[in-house]
Amino acid sequence: MKNKHIIFLAIVVLCVFSCKQKQENPPIQKDPLPSFNDVQSKANIMAFVQSVTDSTSSNYVKPIDRIACFDNDGTLWAEQPLPSQLFFVFDKVREMARSNPKYATESPYKQVVENNLEELLKQDKDKLVAMIGEVDSLFYPNYKETVNSWIDTVQHPVLNRPYASTVYQPMIELLDYLRANQFTVYVVSGGGVAFMRAWQPVIYGIPENNIIGSTFKTEAVQKNDSIAVVPTSQFDFYDDHMGKVINIQKTIGKKPIMVVGNSDGDLEMMEYAFTNNPHPTFMLYVNHTDGEREFLYDEKTIAGKLVKGKEVAKKNGWTIIDMRNDWKTVFPN
User: Fold this and answer.
1) How many CA atoms lie within 13 A of 81 on its CB side?
2) Domain range for residue 274?
């Protein structure tokens, strides 16, 4: 009987010791943003997400209202020396010029074929925009396959990696982190919506109906019992500055609680989300300060200038990512 008491006491001691060990050595939490250095921007992001997902917090936001809107060019992937969609359009124009003299002799196609960017930028803007829409329409109905083949195989002219690998690794991790915390993520970009919807569902994991962008007019065409929506080269809506605000309200129907961008073109949707929002908000800018691993933006940068947005961000206490100092790595390995 005495031996049984001793064995029982030994088991109790072992259980208590085991429980104490578990309390003293809790499981190590995996870092959801490993490509960030341990900097203030990372701490701010995680503090916000933890606050709005904690049901005991006064800042708690129900999953249905956890909406995050991201710009694309310069925010989720590289946009220099020109937005990548333009390089896609240029490649397709050169391809068509091999069999159609129009694209080798008429402006603005001629300047594209000659790789004369300086003269190209002097051309009528409406013609330049129409050229983008023309490529969209001419490569229909195989547009999606054409874009994805180009994204996966063609090398960026400066970064020397496929365009599919010019996405920012820290931002891919941020998208995953938000989704893991029941955020609904949207892309709200000035880029062409058809171009973005071709590849972003695979690379970003964002469904097509959550991708908002600039549009060209379409036509509904009926053949027998089948109806198809066919793109045209006629421009419809520019999703930048106030256009982003309009499209957020039109498509989503409520204000996001988190907005991420990199330029003055994103400022209006940030101000829209930040003001008179019934929920806590988080505004995040990506500042391109890394001329070695990516691009150093300045006053001569064609796309993605951040001047007024930076002033407003500092005034309102928004978070700004310093790419050079805040990111361990920029692109996927």
Assistant:
1) 6
2) 40-81+167-326
Residue 267 lies in a domain: yes
What is residue 29's predicted lDDT score, i.e. its pLDDT? 78
d(CA 169, CA 331): 5
Inter-helix orientation angle 40-53/169-180, to 10°: 20
3-state secondary structure of 235: strand
CB 288 within 8 A of CB 296: yes
Q: Residue 59 belongs to a domain with what CATH number? A: 3.40.50.1000
Nearest to 286 by CA among 315, 316, 265: 265
- Cis status of the peptide bond prior to 108, with omega within 30 of 0: yes
Residue 247 in domain: yes
* Cα distance between residue 13 and residue 299, in whole Å: 69
The residue to which tokens 């874009």 are assigned: 147
184 sits in which H/E element: strand 184-192
Extract the tokens encoding 10.
């030994």
Domain presence at residue 235 = yes
For residue range 270-295, list pLDDT tens digits in order.
999 999 999 999 999 999 999 999 99
Residue 207 lies in a domain: yes
Number of domains present in the structure of the chain = 1
| Total Cβ atoms within 10 A of residue 165 | 19
Which pTM was predicted? Answer: 0.90
Q: Give the mean pLDDT of 147-174.
A: 97
Euclidean distance between CA atoms 230 and 140, whole angstroms: 8
Provide the phi-psi class of 205: left if phi over 0, else alpha when psi is between -120 and 50, else beta.
Answer: left
- Beta-bridge mates of residue 282: 258
Q: CA torsion angle for 104, 110, 114, 119 (degrees, to 10)? A: 170
